Amino acid sequence: MGLMKTFIFLPPASKPTGGITVLRQMADILHQAGRETYLVERESAGWRPGGLADAAPVIGWDAMRLTPDDLWLVPEGWPNALAPGLEARARCVSYVQNWAYLFSALPPGVSWHQLPVSLMAVSDPVAHFIKESTGQNAPILRPGIDRAIFHPGKSKSGTVTVAFMPRKNKGLAAQIRAVFEHRNGPDAVRWRPLEGLDAFGVAQALRSSHLFLMTGFPEGCPLPPLEAMACGCLPVGFTGLGGWDYMRQAQPCPRFTPWWPLREVGWSGNGLWCADGDVLDAALCLEQAVGLIRQGGPELDAVLAAGQETADAYSTDEQRKSVLAAWDAL
């Protein structure tokens, strides 16, 4: 038995995505720990994050030579990319970064039951989804955020500012805003769209915002609300299902309560959360959050402190430990 080499498929992407960033982080963690690891790309024109010093080598699809001793890891939306691993009888792993694509990309007539592929989950809710739908127990490998970039700044002042990501469910975001403005007037808050920014730009924008409105779903383990908490924002809104890995309700009497099991965590309520797609509840949560910011005091401090604890639990240091532990287990 040779030493296990790891090959990780990099899907093509023209712009930064959280999923690809996480795949690259995993490869670099393994590479820096002295484990032979390669990122494999289909086409070389894709986006690459800068600033990685000791980065894992990237090879072309045609240069990959898999053996039965190797591990071939592919994100869940690209089941066709599993083929070379299946042909080589390598150890094939599908890393499920979003439960919503677990079945959507499978070829017609193919089920996960038939494939000699083990599933790995990005979060506890995704592992629960996998277990209930396929019967597989998927180990969990969570993403991490860089606390050197995402950290709180000076105290926040001025008009209450709401950061949001316009590309996430644009129509619903517009409805939440309309409901909020009809109830509170058009000038109650300042809206700050987060678009076209690198990680440093996002962190800077979040540090000078009071609130983060989460409009994205479905999600596997959404990083933007974590980044917002890390920067001292109070997050509000949808959870994407996967967000319940770390999201805990700060509302004393929430209008929505998840029916699936939540794991034990060391922090208390870190945001005001509602059901995905419920624009009215999201607007009401936003209104309540604005009230909390204006009022200040121990209630607000407790939620923001829980956000810092949450962000610390998802640091890149924690990610490094869990990646190395997962590979030891493999």
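Second entry:
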Amino acid sequence: MNDLTLNELATLLAVFNRAGTSDLNNAEQEMLTRITQAHAEREELESMDFDDCLGGACKL
């Protein structure tokens, strides 16, 4: 599977925001929700310092 990068996810969110999110249909709203969640998860993953995980101190 080809995951989107943090920058690509941010770009998609920017496009949704410019287009307006008040009148999205169900499929579009679901996609926006999934993109928002993926962006938050990717942002958290990329901000992690993996040295902090030595000895099993964090969950991946």
